[in-house]
Amino acid sequence: MIKLFDILKEIYLLEGIIKVPQEVLSKSKEAFDYINSNLNNLKSKSKGKNYKNPYIDSKFKNFFKLKDLKNQDLNVTIGFYNDPEDLGAGRMDTEKDILLINLPFFVGEDYDDFEDTVEHELVHAMDPKVRDIQLFGKLYSKKGVEPINDKTMEKYLKSPWEFDAFTAPLINKIVNNIKKSPSYKDVLIKLLSDIKSKDIDTILSSPEYDQMPYFFTKKEWKVENWDYILNEFKNELYKIKAWASKPTLYKRFTSRLGKELI
């Protein structure tokens, strides 16, 4: 069995985001379009299904083909369930390699959010500390929690596997947008410094950060997208604020971001 220390040492030394290959991630558009066009039918077929017993359309069997972090072949199937009481839009079953989509949370107008969900879950699929069932069980007993309130959400965001899964899409968004407007890099750096000591409302009300929400989204930078973009910005700041409360974790986040910005 893989030793936890060896995995964490390897990940820390590399200290980069877990990258889902773009050619793999781009397949999520095909899945999104199909789900959007067949949503009612998929909801009907997955009625009463939960994440432990999903409906699987043959079209999505072994849909994503990639490598895990141990360079082993990984074929991920998309499964569907229908549970409005569950905690979110997606889950990853790393025992059966099924990326689970919770259809009540599917929004047909929002491909960007769907792609972020897919990227997040595929990072879990690639992650050796999640793939090793015994190892993950030990980790979860110490650091795992369901994000049902503010207190548990912060612990959830700080867990090693969720930290990896959340930093990948977030850092990719920031880096892609900074590359479009590199003059804002200094503003971003100041924001990341301020968030350690200032509350989120103070940052949101600061004129110097008026343009920053656009750097935390995949959405097109236009006025009609503003409400969505601002809400996404708040959500991402909440994650960063949680990491900033733990200096070692925050250093890992900024190191990963810095590595991608070089």
Features:
alpha+beta, globular, disordered N terminus
Overview of this protein structure:
- The chain is α+β, with helices and mostly antiparallel strands and 262 residues long.
- The chain has two domains: 21-126, no CATH class; 150-261, no CATH class.
- The protein has 13 helices and four strands.
- It has helices at residues 4-14, 22-25, 28-37, 39-45, 111-126, 128-131, 133-143, 150-158, 160-180, 185-194, 200-204, 226-244, 247-261; strands at 64-67, 73-81, 90-93, 98-102.
- A four-stranded mixed β-sheet has the order 1-2-4-3, with helices on one face.
- A hairpin with a 4-residue loop joins strand 3 and strand 4 (98-102).
- Helix 5 (111-126) packs across helix 9 and helix 9 (160-180) runs parallel beside helix 13.
- The longest helix has 21 residues, at 160-180.
- The chain is globular.
- The two termini are 36 Å apart.
- Mean pLDDT is 92; it is low at 1-13.
Please give the share of residues in helix.
Answer: 40-55%
Number of domains: 2
User: Termini distance?
Assistant: 36 Å
Please tell me what the overall shape is: globular
Give me the Rg, rounded.
19 Å
Question: How many strands, which pairing sense, and closed or not: the largest β-sheet?
Answer: 4 strands, mixed
Query: Which regions contain 5 or more consecutive residues with pLDDT less than 50?
Result: 1-13
Secondary structure tally, helices: 13
Strand segment tally: 4
- Give the overall pLDDT as a whole number: 92
What is the topology, as strand order, of the major beta sheet? 1-2-4-3
- Oligomeric state of this protein: single chain
- Give the percentage of residues in beta strands: 5-15%
Q: Indicate the structural class.
A: alpha+beta
User: In sequence order, what are the helices and strands, one letter per element?
Assistant: HHHHEEEEHHHHHHHHH
